[in-house]
Amino acid sequence: MMFRLAQISDPHLGPLPKVAWTDLASKRAFGWYNWRRNRARAFAPAVLNALTEDMLAGRPDHVAVTGDLVNLGLSEEFDNARAWLENLGAPEDVTVIPGNHDAYVHGAIEEFTEAWHPYMLGDEAREVHFPFIRRRRNVAIVALSSAVPTAPLMATGEIGGGQAAALASRLAALGRAALFRVVLIHHAPVAKSSHWHKRLVDGDLFRQAIAEAGAELILHGHNHKTSIAHLPGPKGPVPVVGVAAASKLPHDGKPGGSYLSFDIEEAGAGFTIRMTERGVLTPGGAVETLSEQSLTE
Ligand SMILES: [Fe+2]
Ligand SMILES: [Fe+2]
User: Fold this and answer.
1) pLDDT digits 0-9 by tens, 19-45
2) How far is the CA of 260 from the centre of ligand 2 (A)?
3) 67 CA → ligand 2 middle, Å
4) Distance of CA 101 from the midpoint of ligand 2 (Å)
5) What's the CA-to-centroid distance between 24 and ligand 1, angstroms?
6) Which H helix or E strand runs over 111?
7) Residues near 14 by Cβ (< 8 Å), separated by ≥ 6?
8) Among 43, 73, 173, 175, which is least packed, fewest CB within 10 Å?
9) What are 147-170's pLDDT values in tens digits?
10) Minimum-distance ligand to the CA of 224?
11) What fold does the segment set 3-294 form as a domain?
């Protein structure tokens, strides 16, 4: 029986609530200025709404949201994002991990943990703890947080030694149970796949865990463009897929936002994965299929 997993990422939900300059100390002042200058023009709720509607019409069995739900880590943004999540589905059908923008300033982690916690709970867990695991039929979702507060103008991520060790041991156990293991991480885990100031600082720890224990699929956001790469696993290369930012407006001939869906099916001793990207190519255009391919040739 086929399992359809949809991935949507980096909605950077706007518009920003009206903020007082007193709330904009330090890093937020940079972010607010940047947002006004660039993001407010480049991101459109209309694109995000069209993608969301199209994605839900495909009746996915589960939805993965791979971070950067908000921009500056303000309380109103987190509440706004919670409402958006509720529109995507019930917490048992939607898994969320945070991105660097969600952890924009100190204190933000506590706030999003509170606002989004049912969407970030492992099976039978009562508290949010990364990595967490959700099993749905023959699919095991392993959700990491690479979201840490950073210095102004930096957008790096880190998982830390604790998460890396847990990742390796949980993946090994889930692999022995012959489950389809999908790992969610906001930052791109392939070496040098992001600009230096946006990189996963301890990506070597992540890659080591995958090399040892393996996984069937790794999904990330952060780079705001769709990409397919591979990391070495114990039984061969593991596909690593990034997706475009969901609310991006198409402009200057460049495509806008998109989402991905993965149709996962058991085949012999393993699985097949068919990936479809649907997005918006032209301003005001409808959502259409941009590409369709097998990840397991
Ligand atoms: Fe982002
Ligand atoms: Fe990001």
Assistant:
1) 555 555 555 655 655 655 555 555 678
2) 18
3) 7
4) 6
5) 20
6) helix 108-116
7) 35, 39, 40, 43, 45, 71, 247
8) 173
9) 998 887 889 999 999 999 999 999
10) 1
11) Purple Acid Phosphatase; chain A, domain 2 (3.60.21)
Do the beta carbons of residue 159 and residue 199 sit within 8 Å? no
Query: Which residue in 172, 167, 248, 233 sits closest to 200, CA to CA?
Result: 167
Considering every ligand atom shown, identify the ligand nearest to the alpha carbon of residue 39 and give its number. Answer: 1
Instruction: Using DSSP, state whether 48 is helix, strand or coil.
Output: helix
Which amino acid makes up residue 149?
Answer: P
Q: Are 258 and 227 in contact (CB under 8 A)?
A: no
Q: Are 182 and 143 in contact (CB under 8 A)?
A: no
Task: Provide the 3-class DSSP secondary structure of residue 136.
Answer: strand
Question: How much distance in Å is there from the Cα of 12 to the middle of ligand 2?
Answer: 9
What are the tens digits of pLDDT across the range 270-287? 999 999 999 998 877 899
Structure tokens at 238: 């593991």
The bound ligand whose nearest atom lies closest to the alpha carbon of 11 is 1
Q: Could you write out the DSSP letters of every residue in 227-295?
A: EEEEEEETTEEEEEEE---TTBPPBTTB---EEEEEEEEEETTEEEEEEEEEEE-STTPPEEEEEEEES
What is the number of other CB atoms lying within 10 angstroms of the CB of residue 203?
23
- Ligand 1 center from residue 265 Cα (angstroms): 30
